[in-house]
Design a protein that fits this description.
This protein has 341 residues and is α/β, with parallel strands linked by helices. It folds into two domains: 3-63 and 159-340, QueA-like (3-Layer(aba) Sandwich); 67-145, QueA-like (Thrombin, subunit H, Beta Barrel), CATH 2.40.10.240. Helix content is 18%, strand content 28%. The protein has helices spanning 138-145, 186-194, 233-244, 253-263, 303-312, 314-326; strands at residues 27-31, 38-42, 55-59, 61-63, 67-72, 78-88, 91-97, 107-110, 115-122, 128-134, 171-174, 198-204, 227-231, 249-252, 273-277, 292-296, 337-340.
Length: 341
């Protein structure tokens, strides 16, 4: 398959610039992948499609204030860092601009000198490895001097940064939110749990590679970015029990889906583990664990629209996306949701 097979025309005005007033009041497109039918709901109705014994799997990562605005030591030239992932100790991989100012040995200052960084290496795609210097606790300093990085297609500043976090976010480490989970409220999750739906968690720290365009026309030539994941024994047991009892495993978001398909063996069973995943799921992939998926609407020609096409079929996904455009759904991170049942 070619990248161009996953293109659709999206009017600019359908890209959501802010979240809905209430999380679960976003719209929900329900796609029946067996019958091919589409219906339109609100997200608060999601419980109609989740049964007692099913297992809902959420990604409990938390977005860190990974965007740093500073200046070059000595010259005062402006610089912007975005933290991608922690390598070890105080060494991080970062995207920065302007890149010409950041040769190995270059030093930068953030937050009136609270935080300093030195470039130690230029790596693939022009990213840098930098070593941070500070007095105190890095996370606390980052909270003071950093900014939560919104995706490039969101140009409007949000008033409440917590709206770019899920209500169950727990473990810090992401540069972008697992946006399918933004629709859930605490009350909705409690309602599902009270009805006998099992709720399990995975952790996958989302990198900005999630927004990276596919630059090759042949999908097999695309190199997927890697992201850190973790799943514990209790959550593995909940997911395994759902499979054994003939109930559904419902992934909330492509990030949860990628963890489950990375960890699951050929029979769909999971064991607790952690590591780095660069799994690339596109049509032709056979799912081992995930039965259904709650997801947002993704960028044209992205690895994410390829993943949902692997689950529901490319033709049905493109039909659903075109229907969403006609119905003026809101797209991308702060946009509406789709349930692939």
């Amino acid at each position: 398959m070619k990248v161009s097979d996953f293109y659709y025309d999206l009017p600019q005005e359908l890209i959501a610039q802010e979240p809905t007033a209430k999380r679960d009041m976003s719209r929900l497109l329900v796609l029946d992948r067996e019958a091919g039918g589409i219906c339109h709901k609100q997200f608060k109705d999601i419980g109609e499609y989740i049964n007692k014994g099913d297992c809902l799997v959420l990604n409990d990562t938390r977005v860190i204030p990974a965007r740093l605005l500073g200046e070059k030591e000595g010259t005062g030239g402006k610089i912007e860092f975005v933290l991608l992932k922690k390598i070890n100790g105080d060494v991080w991989e970062v995207i920065l601009k302007p890149g010409k100012k950041a040769k190995p040995g270059s030093r930068f200052v953030f937050g009136n000198g609270e935080l300093k960084a030195e470039v130690i290496e230029i790596i693939e795609e022009g990213n840098r490895l930098v070593r941070f210097e500070y007095d105190g606790i890095f996370e606390q300093i980052l909270d003071r001097v950093g900014i939560v990085p919104l995706p490039p297609y969101i140009t409007k500043k949000i008033d409440d940064a917590e709206r770019y976090q899920t209500v169950y976010s727990k473990y810090r480490g992401s540069a972008a939110a697992p946006t399918a989970g933004l629709h859930f409220t605490v009350e909705l999750l409690e309602e599902l749990a009270n009805r006998g739906v099992n709720i399990a968690y995975v952790t996958l720290h989302v990198g900005l590679g999630t927004f990276r365009p596919v630059k090759v026309e042949n999908l097999q030539e695309h190199k997927m970015h890697s992201e850190f994941y973790r799943i514990n024994e209790e959550d593995c047991n909940k997911i395994n029990a759902a499979k054994e009892n003939g109930c559904k495993v419902i992934a909330v978001g492509t990030t949860s889906c990628r963890v489950l398909e990375t960890v699951g063996d050929e029979k769909g069973r999971l064991k607790p583990q952690s590591g780095w995943t660069d799994i690339f799921i596109y049509p032709g992939y056979e799912f081992k664990v995930v039965d259904s998926l709650i997801t947002n609407f993704h960028l044209p020609e992205s690895t994410l629209i390829m993943l949902v096409s692997a689950l529901a079929g490319r033709d049905r996904i493109m039909e659903a996306y075109n229907a969403a455009v006609r119905e003026k759904y809101r797209f991308f991170s702060f946009g509406d949701a789709m349930f692939i049942k």
